């Protein structure tokens, strides 16, 4: 059974049609890499999955739940789909540990102590054991993004959505975030990743989607299509990112 | 008549009594104003069309009319319209509640909307309902930005109470006028009254500064 299923899904911002009748079905355990030119609708597609954008046509099912099912269903979907943003979006008034512990406390209902023990374990996992007491402003971009990944994982999601997680980072900091993502993929986490890191796509991607004008133009195995793009515009696009 | 500063000390008990009334109206009025303003401000920021329109109408009605007219309306017109008797003191407190509430609403709205939208999305994305995101994440951040403009409004409201002289509330300015009527010591009295206001606004400014200092704006 498919885990995330776009059924003729459309999304418009006013007159601007951003997703056009998208059909896409992904299984558990897949690592879907989304690429495409700026403005082609990658972020929007991702954000429809956890309801940060409201779809305007068709349907979108996440683990058996429709994103159109109302507020409560949406909260359930969001607990199953963790999201990592390009700009990290850590809560600035909270320490790294508090950032990670917030979801378990306020969403899963854990006590402060339980939540913080779990949060510390997640910080260990992303290589930030000794940074729990630091505020976001005291961390580097790469560290902030790893905290953000830990924060998303803390709610125990079944799928992780990444929207250009390394785009705001200096080149030398990208790898520390990519390593955490590689690790997650190897542990079998289902992932949908918008990224321009083609090495990552080749290494752990199970599927590569090239988007163009709100449509899926190419959907294939990353290792084959990255080296021999089936579409001239994709070829052109790849020549610019690499 | 010669200016005799020592005479200022003779009015002190009366002035303190007047200042107490001023403080009483200000404090009660601002507590109410904060409650009303927060509700109206959140309605503006996050309410649907109808709630938004209600709050908008209230804010514009108040901001578009002078506070003297507002208190006159409460004190003289409301009894005629709605058959509600209201004493001058209640009218004064209510005027501050309603008036400060409108300005505070805009302050609250501005503070909440100034917080990076990405943080709201991050909160929603971990599965928190919107109200929890506002309560645990956005509210505390907005609160820090609220303090400077709120302090400003507190001082404005405190000074506005002097206008309630028009409905005969025995606050500080009115007290000054009463003393004046008895002894015509204009220079001494109005200097003393001004000093009283300065002490009150100065204390407020100082208190707000120290709160501000302790809280980093993030
Ligand atoms: N909130 C919004 N309001 C209006 N237009 C938007 C909004 N978000 C995105 N868009 C538009 O939708 C299109 C696709 O955006 P996006 O999904 O962010 O593309 P990508 O992530 O591929 O660069 C762009 O033209 C963008 O300007
Ligand atoms: Mg994008």
Write up what this structure looks like:
The complex is a heterodimer of chains A (242) and B (218). Chain A has helices spanning 42-49, 71-80, 96-106, 112-125, 141-153, 171-186, 198-204, 222-227, 232-241, and strands at 4-13, 16-26, 31-35, 57-62, 65-66, 81-84, 159-163, 190-194, 207-212, 215-220. By secondary structure, chain A is α/β, with parallel strands linked by helices. In chain A, the strands form two sheets. Chain A has a six-stranded mixed beta sheet with strand order 6-7-8-3-9-10, with helices on both faces. In chain A, strands 2-1-4-5 form a four-stranded antiparallel beta sheet, with helices on one face. In chain A, strand 1 (4-13) and strand 2 form a beta hairpin. In chain A, helix 4 (112-125) packs across helix 5 (141-153). The radius of gyration of chain A is 18 Å and the shape is globular. Helices cover 81% and strands 0% of the residues of chain B. The mean pLDDT of chain B is 94. Chain B is an all-alpha fold and 218 residues long. In chain B, helix 1 crosses helix 8 and helix 5 (117-125) packs antiparallel against helix 6 (130-160). Chain B is flat. Chain B has eight helices and no strands. Classes of the chains: A alpha/beta (242), B mainly alpha (218). The site of adenosine-5'-diphosphate has 11 residues of chain A, from strand 2 and helix 1.
Oligomer: heterodimer
CATH class of chain B: Mainly Alpha
Number of domains of chain B: 1
Which spans of chain B of ≥5 residues are poorly predicted at pLDDT below 50? none
Which architecture of chain B does the CATH hierarchy give at level 2?
Orthogonal Bundle
Condensed summary:
Chain A is an alpha/beta fold and 242 residues long.
Itemize the secondary structure elements and their pairings.
The complex is a heterodimer of chains A (242) and B (218).
Chain A: E1 4-13, E2 16-26, E3 31-35, H1 42-49, E4 57-62, E5 65-66, H2 71-80, E6 81-84, H3 96-106, H4 112-125, H5 141-153, E7 159-163, H6 171-186, E8 190-194, H7 198-204, E9 207-212, E10 215-220, H8 222-227, H9 232-241
Parallel strand pairs in A: 3-8, 3-9, 6-7, 7-8
Antiparallel strand pairs in A: 1-2, 1-4, 4-5, 9-10
Chain B: H1 8-46, H2 49-63, H3 67-82, H4 88-113, H5 117-125, H6 130-160, H7 172-183, H8 186-214
Helix pairs in contact in B: 1-2, 1-4, 1-7, 1-8, 2-4, 3-4, 4-6, 5-6, 6-8, 7-8
């Amino acid at each position: 059974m498919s885990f995330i299923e776009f059924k003729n899904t459309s999304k418009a911002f006013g007159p601007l049609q951003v997703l056009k009748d998208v059909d896409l079905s992904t299984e558990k355990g897949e690592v879907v890499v989304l690429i495409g030119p700026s403005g082609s609708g990658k972020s929007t597609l991702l954000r429809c999955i956890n309801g940060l954008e409201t779809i305007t046509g068709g349907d979108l099912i996440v683990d058996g739940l429709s994103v159109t099912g109302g507020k409560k269903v949406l909260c359930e979907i969001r607990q199953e789909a963790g999201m990592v943003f390009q700009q990290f979006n850590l809560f600035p008034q909270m320490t790294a540990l508090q950032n990670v512990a917030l979801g378990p406390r306020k969403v899963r209902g854990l006590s402060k102590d339980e939540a913080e023990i779990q949060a510390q374990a997640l910080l260990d996992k992303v290589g930030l054991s000794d940074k729990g007491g630091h505020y976001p402003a005291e961390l580097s971009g790469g560290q902030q993004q790893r905290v953000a990944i830990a924060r998303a994982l803390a709610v125990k999601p079944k799928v992780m959505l990444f929207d250009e997680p390394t785009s705001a980072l200096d080149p030398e900091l990208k790898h520390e975030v990519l390593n955490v993502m590689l690790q997650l993929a190897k542990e079998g986490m289902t992932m949908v990743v918008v990224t321009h890191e083609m090495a990552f796509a080749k290494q752990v991607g199970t599927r590569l989607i090239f988007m163009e004008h709100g449509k899926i133009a190419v959907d294939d195995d990353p290792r084959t299509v990255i080296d021999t793009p089936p579409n001239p515009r994709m070829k052109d696009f790849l020549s610019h990112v690499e | 008549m010669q200016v005799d500063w020592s005479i200022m000390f003779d009015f002190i008990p009366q002035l303190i009594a007047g200042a107490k009334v001023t403080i009483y109206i200000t404090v009660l009025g601002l507590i109410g104003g904060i409650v009303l303003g927060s509700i109206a401000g959140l309605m503006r920021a996050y309410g649907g069309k109808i709630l938004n329109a209600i709050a908008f109408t209230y804010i514009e009605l108040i901001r578009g009319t002078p506070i003297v007219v507002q208190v006159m309306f409460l004190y003289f017109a409301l009894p005629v319209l709605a058959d509600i008797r209201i004493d001058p003191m209640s009218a004064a407190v209510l005027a501050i509640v309603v008036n400060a509430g409108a300005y505070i609403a805009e302050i609250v709205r501005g503070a909440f909307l100034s917080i990076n939208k990405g943080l709201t999305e991050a909160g929603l994305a971990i599965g928190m309902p919107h109200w929890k995101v506002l309560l645990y994440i956005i509210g505390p951040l907005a609160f820090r930005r609220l303090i400077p403009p709120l302090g400003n409004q507190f001082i404005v409201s405190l000074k506005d109470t002097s206008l309630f002289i028009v409905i005969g509330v025995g606050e500080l300015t009115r007290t000054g006028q009463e003393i004046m009527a008895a002894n015509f010591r204009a220079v001494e009295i109005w200097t003393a009254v001004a000093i009283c206001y300065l002490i009150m606004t100065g204390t407020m400014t100082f208190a707000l500064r120290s709160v501000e200092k302790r809280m980093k704006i993030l």
